[in-house]
Amino acid sequence: MTDMVIVPDLAGDFVPAFDSEEEYAQFREEFSEEMQEVLLEQSRARARSEEEIRRKRVF
């Protein structure tokens, strides 16, 4: 189980505390996969927005 620790220097960001290197490595892998999904969705949303702007300029 991962505990969440508040680090004052990070202005309210939550930083996970890990019991082992293996737990930390697993977290990094899962977090990396989640971030890739988030970035992909942001990229798709940006492309949709740009396409909508192009369409409006045509009409």
Provide a brief overview of the structure.
This protein has 59 residues and is of the alpha+beta class.
Shape annotation: rod-shaped
Mean pLDDT: 80
- Structural class per helix/strand content? alpha+beta
Strand content bin:
5-15%
* Radius of gyration over C-alpha positions, nearest whole angstrom: 19 Å
Distance N to C terminus: 55 Å
How many H/I helices?
A: 1
Describe the biggest sheet?
2 strands, antiparallel
Percent helix, as a range, is 55-70%
- Strand arrangement within the widest β-sheet reads 1-2
- Order of SSEs: EEH
Count all strands and give the number. Answer: 2
Low-confidence stretches: none
What features would you describe in this structure?
Helix content is 64%, strand content 14%. It is α+β, with helices and mostly antiparallel strands and 59 residues long.
List keywords for this structure.
59 residues, alpha+beta
Helix and strand layout, with pairings?
Layout: E1 3-6, E2 14-17, H1 21-58
